Amino acid sequence: MCMENGAAVCVFVCEAESTGEDKHLDIAKRVIKRLKTLKHPYILTYIDSFEKALAFLNNEGGLTHHTVNSISVFVTQAGDWKLSGVECCSSVATPPTPGSRPVPALQVYSPPEASTNSSAVNKWSSDMWGLGCLVWETFNTTTLTDVMDLRDTTKIPRGILDTYQQLVSTSSRCRPNPKDVLATLTKKGAFFNNDLILTLTFLEELHIKDDRESSRFLSGLVKKLDSFPDYIVKYRILPTLITQHTVYNAGCRILSALFKIGTLLNDCEYQQHIVPCVVTLFSSSDRNTRLKLLQQIPSLCQHITTNTVNKEVFPHLVSGFVDTNATIREHTVKSILHLAAKLNYNNLNVEVLNHFARLQSLDD
User: Fold this and answer.
1) What are 27-45's pLDDT values in tens digits?
2) Backbone phi, then psi, for 74, in 5-degree steps?
3) Do residues 152 and 139 lie in contact, with contact meaning Cβ atoms separated by under 8 Å?
4) What is the DSSP letter of 237?
5) Residue 6 β-bridge partners
6) What percentage of the chain has pLDDT greater than the value 70?
7) Which residue among 113, 167, 198, 332 is the one 20 to 30 A from 52 at the CA level?
8) Residue 328: Cβ within 10 Å count
9) What is the reported pTM?
10) Sign of torsion, CA 155 157 163 165?
11) Quick one: CATH architecture of 35-186?
């Protein structure tokens, strides 16, 4: 399903029974009520972002999720992990109520202390046990059916093994705060300290970086794109770059990355995401921006409609014929070879020919 702006959304539907005594409907109502109080981007993104959601829930929110596992994770088109399943969520300050206890099918994810009805030492202990279950399920690519399987660590990466063993400790006192988990796994040389995670983290914070930091990051981004999954590049990195252009006027700094990402898009996606961005940049007075655009004309022109070329691109491009910079003039002339087929009669046979004649007379 799509919203009015074309953005895709998921709609979760709970069908009530005609008797009006559907316990699932009651659970759905609790979910809606709880979600209205949880305003956080990672509540209903990679596993590191998932931990940020738990850190927010346990520490700032003062809540316990109770059913953290693969079933409570929704993965977006961009690869973000969203925490859902908040129907059992309860305040850490009050004992769990019947409504906050997992349904029987999810009992396998309950921490050891739940079987003895004893309270966890720390407010995050229950959810950290669940996070350990999620880690096991993620790397074993299967659903946990027996709690004893958590002892099998053959598929848990070495870089996360120590943390995993703390998460599934039978002693609730030994399970770390989610903030500490993040700190441990993101420090230099740790499991989450890699190009992909660092790049996505920087992108989240790009709006608060100064121009020097942003320019250095964006100039190095192009070389990294080939090592990232295509869906991350298309649905996570590209929207951020476009936002940088539309909101923060990033201009020339994002062009190289935009054109690189453009090679991954089909024509419809290119028309939707790349063309509107680059067309507006043709009006830029910055020579670096204009030169980069002119150099990309061979690949750009096949995606730009005839109407857009004549009404939005050519009126700005034509100024390059009289630019004082010889390189700009040269690439403007070369661009006509690729745009000629889309130029209307007046632009091609009047405007362009007049400029060609003038340039030729200057050479003579």
Assistant:
1) 555 555 555 554 444 433 3
2) -115, 130
3) no
4) I
5) none
6) 80
7) 113
8) 18
9) 0.75
10) positive
11) Orthogonal Bundle (1.10)
